[in-house]
Amino acid sequence: MTTITKASKAMLFSSVLGVIFSPSCLAKVNYADNSGFSITNTSESAAPIEAVYSHFIQQVDKWWPKDHTWWKGTLSIDEQAGGCFCEVTQTASAAHMQISYVEPNKKVVMTGGLGPLQEMGISGALTWEFSNMEESASSNEETERTFSTKTKVTLTYHASGNIHFSGQRASNEDAANLVKVVDKVQAQQLNALTVFTDKQLDEMNKDNAKRQ
User: Which of 137, 156, 188, 197 is the most buried (most CB within 10 A)?
Assistant: First the structure.
């Protein structure tokens, strides 16, 4: 069996242990082999789209897990095509991914490889989609559909490239095991956004209640 390098293992596995996911967070590996993979994660927030999207862009340094960074540096997202999802410290910097598509409050596409996948030469499209939660109610044998203020965020990563460990191409089994970990890590990243947003919403509601 092949082994993951020390740096890759730290980046991918350290934050998975003990992670707590919200009941609304769902993860799925669409396919995985040693030439690439596709994974999808979804999570829900009680906040409206505008709030979730604003936190996603403007406060990424507050919600993105610091143990999913290179040096626990400062994170930022430059909200424009060609912009950077970057991490900087006083002495180092890294482009986690590049922004290729922005449709505010709806969709952002980032391209590249996250974490140790970057050094493997793995690249792909990481798509963040924001949508209103649709609710339905039956009335007089007819179904009425309404949109709530809740938001669903769907995170999809389609990646291609030869998955290898220390220069040795992985077997399909080893690659699939790695992708399962990547899937859990991305579920945690997505969950961090919705949990952070819900916490901000709760604090705002408490402040408003105090003022009344």
Answer: 197
